[in-house]
Amino acid sequence: MSDPNSRDVPGAALLDAEHLARQTFGDAELAAELLVLFAAQCRRLLPGIVDAGAPTAERADLAHTLKGSALGIGADRVTLSSAAVEDALRAGTAAACDELAAAVTETLAALPQKP
């Protein structure tokens, strides 16, 4: 389900709940666990991706990893933004890390909070 408030990528959802439900076969506990793992991975990977002093290939690999994680849970904006950063880094052009950072921040803020 697309988020109509998505600014960066038309039609891209912060979190596609239907996709996540399909991926977890409707298991709400598993979905919640995956979201916790995704949030932790975002917090671990994003600093390395945006670090302009880090080797470009390493940054691209981190963006690739984040892209795969985001794709798995239906975090569409993070998926598309990390793919764009990865592609730019691999091509040796300027990467839109600000857009990726915003997508991650907004997606993490939209995740359901544990009680």
Description:
- It contains five helices and no strands.
- Helix 3 (56-73) packs antiparallel against helix 4 and helix 4 (76-91) packs antiparallel against helix 5.
- Mean pLDDT is 89; it is low at 1-8.
- It has helices at 17-23, 28-50, 56-73, 76-91, 97-110.
- The longest helix is centred in the middle third of the chain and has 23 residues, at 28-50.
- By secondary structure, it is mainly alpha-helical.
- It is 68% helix and 0% strand.
What is the element layout, followed by pairings?
Elements: H1 17-23, H2 28-50, H3 56-73, H4 76-91, H5 97-110
Helix pairs in contact: 2-3, 2-5, 3-4, 4-5
Observed structural traits:
115 residues, mainly alpha, Four Helix Bundle (Hemerythrin (Met), subunit A), 5 helices, 68% helix, 0% strand, elongated, disordered N terminus
What's the main sheet like?
A: none
From the coordinates shown, what is the CATH architecture? Up-down Bundle
* Alpha carbon gap, first and last residue: 24 Å
> Quick one: CATH superfamily?
HPT domain
The sequence of SSEs as H and E is: HHHHH
Number of strands: 0
Shape verdict: elongated
Helix content: 55-70%
In percent terms, what proportion of residues is strand? under 5%
What class do helices, strands and sheet pairing give?
mainly alpha
Q: Provide the residue-averaged pLDDT.
A: 89
